[in-house]
Amino acid sequence: MRKPRRVTTIVCCVAVGALLSGCVASKKTKSDPTKNVGAKQVSLTINANDVVGGKNAAEANWINNYVIPGFVKAQQAKGVTATVKFNGAGVDDEQFKTKLELGLKTGNSADVFSGDGIWLGELASAGYVKPLDEVVGKSAASWDGWSQISKSVQQNMSYKGKVYGIPNGTDGRVIYFNKKLFAQAGLPADWQPKSWDDILAAGTALKKVAGVNPIQINAGTPMGEATTAQGFLPLLAGTGKPLFDEASSKWQGASANVTSVLDFYKKIYGGGLGDPNLQQDKAGRDESFADFSKGKIGILVEGDYFWRSIICPDKTVCNTTAMASRNADVGYAKIPAEKPGMGINGQDFVSVSGGGGWLLNPASKFPQQAWELMTFMMSADAQTNLAKAEIRISPRADVNATTLAGDPLMSYISKTILPITSYRPSDQNYNTVSVAIQEATAAVVSGKSASSAASTFQSILQKAVGDAHVETG
Amino acid sequence: MTAAVRTVPGRTIVGRVLGRIGLYTGICLLTVFFALPLLWLALTPFSDNPSYRATLSGFSLENFRKLFNNPQTWPSLRNSIYLAGGSAILVIVLAALASYALSRVRVPGRDQLLYALLLLSSIVTGTAAMVPIYLMLYQLNLLDRQFGVVLVLTGGLLPAAVFMLKDFVDSIPRSYEESARVFGAKPGQILRHIVLPLIRPGMATVGVWALVQVWGNFLVPYVLLSNPDKQPAAVVMYTFYDAGGQPNFALISTFALVYSVPVVVLYLFVNRRYGFAFQGGIKG
Amino acid sequence: MTLTSKPADAEPTAVGGPGATDVERAQKRGPGRDPDVVGLGRGRASLFVAPALVLVGVFLVFPALWTLYLGLLDYSLTGASAQSPTFIGAQNYTDALSDPAFTKALYLTLLYVGFSAVIGQNILGFLLAWYFRTAPRAVRTTLNVLVLLAWILPGSVVAFLWQALLDRRDGILNTVLQTTGVAWTNDHPMAVIVIFNIWRGAAFSMLLYAAALNTVPTSHLEVARMAGARPWQQLRDVVLPTVRRHVLTNTLLITLWTFNDFTPFLLTGGGPNHESETLPVYIYSTAILHGDLGYGSAISLLLLLANLVIAVFYIRLLRGGDDGSLKAQQRAERKARRAERAVAT
Lengths: 473, 284, 345
Prior knowledge:
CATH architecture of the largest domain in chain B: Orthogonal Bundle
Shape of chain B: globular
Helix content of chain C: over 70%
Structural class of chain C: mainly alpha
Radius of gyration of chain C: 25 Å
Oligomer: heterotrimer
């Protein structure tokens, strides 16, 4: 009785093991740009992290009411019957990404889908997405829209020198400040700091106004990516050296630059110029938004999202954080380098931008038609239509010229910030490094010294990406 | 023990009153403990200025109007009822059959097997397990089908359900079945007329538990269903945020209220029919 | 209030009807007795178990084993390792065990499980179920609905509820206690998540115990009550021995679930400075956030093993190695009789 059972167990284990190892390795498929090129019946699916009645509803409505009918009609004119389905999601980005990757792994994903620029490294090195010229061939380069999209914005959808998709938007970070509080502290309404010291000086002046939290620069782990993109990286850009050096494929460790950024955090949160609790609370970012809208924060670094979706005057859009007198009371300024001329490329002022784009499923049954759909979505007409529902910075210069004219900050970002901005690295380890950055700022906020936080940061990095990819300082 | 029993006659009215007061103070404190966090849910849906603070600045039913105008509200609740109801029924039926057989027929190592399955069920709840499950359903052609979601959820809930229900079957004295058999009842009749009524409170508990587990599950339906029209309410609740992650409190609070009503009503119904009656216990 | 010993003799009849001496007979026959009283037979019994077993086999066991297999790989959903995962043996395990953050997370998890589930939910759930037997209907329904709401609301909403409760500035708790500016989640993170989880999960224990109390033979209680036993004596001598198995089951289940519970993250985010980083939160921040699923699977197995150890401990403690209900029933009857005798003398 004993023996046969053991044999059965072993056989089962081997069988299951063999089955599993077969399923884990992903299949490699070669994409064929000419697949189904002349098909008369075409069915395509669009996937994006937006949903009617929820997150990014404006874009979801645009896809349903403008893109799909418009594209179907255009195909009809060519004698092609197209059916386009929109599978929106509208959840947390992390979860959207997980499901997207599962879909791409099985080849089951939508033909056209949206993705954040910082995911590109991971998706490309996993083989989930392929460069446009591989998926659709020559037609990728010949699209007339490229001329309207600046090289730096195109960079956001590129990885290792290859273009993977069309960017669908971008943004920029600036310093917001409350002009009323500035007046009380004796600071000018057209304030433009020229160095980090200028920011600290303004903070010291604001500290004298009762009940005011002078400076909010995102730090800590609960803020997540907002700590990295809205706080640490713009500051690091102001020290003149990028976080990741593409050529040598190395991340900065405990360099002088990283240490001086952490030291700047130390001066703010250790010196009573900022509120450490806001960086530790789970909902700290929401609280900081609420505080700013109530005139309790003097200086705050954020993207244009803050301006259009948090403190906009319209209460139906911005709810409790709406500021009726935003245009009069809120000022904005460029983020200065540590000292003039010390920024990246020798700049005096710096910024960091993000944004995503539309990508193609390499396993699409209709690659050419999917590409046509994508270019239709990114045409000047379609983008103008989208901007009408929700103001945002289009990657297309021709669209921005007409749609952003009515909003002072949006055109300021488009004209003044985008030329000096930098993008986050799209390397596959970016996510890991970003979390390490959040930990390092959290350590400083809770009282550790800048140098010890920097050395912890370096050792985490070495463990995560390997010694060869860390430039030790 | 004798001493304890002997004190009974010595129990004075004062002691009884003090005991009552203690009991009611405890119950009041407990009620406050459970009610206080729920204050936000009681106030925010009716607030004209919903935020993450629990204040009622002005009464308004505007949030409900917004919710009912939202195209996702009713379909998602219907999907939730389908997924949760389907899984709960499947779990109750399969677990009742299995636990009865496991309780009454000697199978070597059944307790160990049951516990091993229970342990494995804790693995398949995490994100790591979503990869195998997704790939498997892809091969089985069950992706984007609500039936597939029901099967996956039922599989995950069954071990714990059998585990719980087996206790209830175990606590039925076997003499009941024996005597029925003596009077010539067939196995089917015994199960229907004797066993089933006796384990009904257990089945009701397991049913409510299974329903609640599925009702609040986000990850499994979200990952396995791609068509947004098939998503249940728990997933839809996660979409009431803006692009930057700011929650839409008007929709979230109101939907949370609407979303919990069916479960509470169902529970009260089940409770009244099979629940804490306590008058019966085992009836002879 | 004096009783003769008559009810004691008649008592098993009240419980078991014609099969009154079942217990005694079982004792005489010893453990070899076939419990299949209905005459189901092995064939039909297998038919009863089969559907559940097939479903569990396909949709639970297979993916679970697969997940465990991933724990031996350098497996990730994205990045280069997604394309060609390599077999790295036990490296994920040695990595985890040599990480001081893992050990700390394990310790915090044990605290969390011990205080919030084993002690908190278990006892509160039982007391609620016990109290509801005799409670006025209005009180019962109100408290019932409140406890239940805490359990069924989705995690995202619960996070808002507790944020509103514990908020540093205008939080409900600070208002009620007249304390100003206390940042509860930053100052007492572990206490907050323990109390939170008692609030969140007491409903399940309450439900299970309420149903379990239903199976306590009323006659036993009546006898004890007539014998003048106070409620807590009835509880100790009659009720607890009968629901012993349910206590074991409940404790096993809530331990397992609390071990895998991710909701503390919604309140504290594991912070400040990892002070409330339980293992599921640790898995999330080290493995899931980076897509390192191999590592995540490996830690799931470690979690499972920790549960196994705890379960063995529980079973030793509560069951004492017996075969469950028969003995429990005997014990209950013995105790009831002893109580009567005590009164009778």
